[in-house]
Amino acid sequence: MNYLELSIEDLKKEIEILNSAMSKMKYKPDRIVFVSKGAYLIGKYLSDMNNIPLIECHAKRQGNKLKSYVAPSLKILPQKLKVFLRKLEINKGTHTQKSERNVFTNINLTEKDWLNEKILIVDDSVDTGNTLKQVKDYLLENSGATDIKILAINVFHSSNEIITVDYYIYKDTMINGPWSNDSKYNKQFLLAYEKGLKEGVFL
Q: Rounded distance, CA 203 to CA 107, Å?
């Protein structure tokens, strides 16, 4: 399994590559939905590049609180140990054991005002595909959209049976991006997210 660390500038370059791939396929969504909050910058860059509305979608699963409690400890662990623990988490299928998510947006979708629109869901890395499947199912059920595609930085092969990712760069790669709790760019990422929230960059 490969390992890659991305700075915020690195991430922007990766998004430019993905955006170029979409353009070559002549695909331009009407709205971008990012999985909160890790995929915020991915969605923000794509939104800015294409002048497309950005919507936040929450997909909370059991265990998220525990993850936030141990986050400070991760920052002080040696890099090799963090990589080992992350690989162990993926190989043991921890995410599949608690696959049910509470999916919701901050806007009312019941009026189905996205009917016939193209929706792009973005996430940082697709481990099992469970989160994205439930987000996609939620949008199909509540928004009226039928043309939904998915974009991510990385895709693990274990997710292929659950969900199809239309645009991605890496396969089976552990990505330590600005959204990661132990990334040295995480504070900068969180500040950008909070700023976007206050300024109404996304709904």
A: 7
